[in-house]
């Protein structure tokens, strides 16, 4: 996909919110990678990240798509934090060069929580988190009679997985299992703060299985 985009000089933008934190990603494979940090990066709501190739962020026009990039992406919420130099204290008022032109005043308290969350993820290592999360998700899938997949996210329709389990949402709520439900599907996500006992608790609640 990215190769085809480059052949026609199209910019590639990837929303990695549902992947960054459990799935190893190479941001250099796309032009822009946007990530909201409150999901798999375990951060408070209010922080997000955007990456771009260094040649696009350069202060000169050496990259042929730089002019096109700035023509298409406008700073719509520019304020003092997006200003260059000492613009906050007098004229001339102008935007900073590079990506800071698109910044807004940070959500300070959210970043206080984001910093240690990212440090923990880097300390554990995303590759190890990926292995851990997949093992838990696939334990849950096989317990429901489903095939293993390469995703830490499990979405099930209780009516088509081979049998029906009436009352599963009530049992999950009683077991204090956190999940989401939309469009007739139930969505579970397994991360580094979960272990096999959490998987088994969810399985027992869904299937109404009472261990001896």
From TrEMBL:
Annotated Aminotransferase class V domain residues: 3-143
A Pfam short name: Aminotran_5
GO MF annotation list: transaminase activity
Record-linked Gene3D superfamilies: Aspartate Aminotransferase, domain 1, Type I PLP-dependent aspartate aminotransferase-like (Major domain)
Assigned keywords, A-Z: Aminotransferase, Transferase
Classification via InterPro entries: Aminotrans_V_dom, PyrdxlP-dep_Trfase, PyrdxlP-dep_Trfase_major, PyrdxlP-dep_Trfase_small
GTP-binding is among the record's keywords: no
PANTHER family: CYSTEINE DESULFURASE (PTHR43586), PYRIDOXAL PHOSPHATE (PLP)-DEPENDENT ASPARTATE AMINOTRANSFERASE SUPERFAMILY (PTHR43586:SF21)
Protein name from the UniProt record: Aminotransferase class V-fold PLP-dependent enzyme
């Amino acid at each position: 996909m990215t190769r085809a985009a480059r052949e026609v000089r199209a910019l590639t933008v990837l929303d990695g919110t549902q992947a960054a934190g459990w799935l190893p990603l190479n941001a250099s494979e796309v032009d822009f990678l946007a990530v909201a940090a409150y999901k798999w990066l375990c951060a408070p709501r209010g922080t997000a990240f955007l990456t771009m190739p260094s040649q696009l962020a350069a202060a000169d026009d050496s990259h042929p798509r730089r002019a096109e990039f700035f023509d298409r992406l406008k700073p719509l919420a520019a304020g003092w934090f997006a200003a260059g130099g000492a613009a906050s204290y007098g004229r001339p008022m102008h935007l900073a060069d590079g990506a800071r032109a698109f910044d807004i005043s940070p959500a300070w308290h959210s970043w206080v929580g984001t910093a240690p969350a990212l440090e923990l993820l880097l300390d554990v290592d995303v590759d190890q988190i990926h292995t851990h999360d997949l093992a838990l998700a696939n334990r849950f899938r096989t317990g429901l009679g489903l095939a293993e997949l390469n995703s830490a996210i499990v979405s099930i329709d209780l009516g088509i997985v081979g049998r029906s389990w009436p009352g599963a949402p009530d049992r999950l709520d009683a077991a204090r299992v956190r999940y989401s439900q939309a469009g007739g599907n139930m969505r579970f996500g397994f991360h580094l703060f979960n272990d096999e006992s959490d998987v088994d608790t969810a399985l027992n609640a869904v299937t109404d299985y009472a261990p001896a």
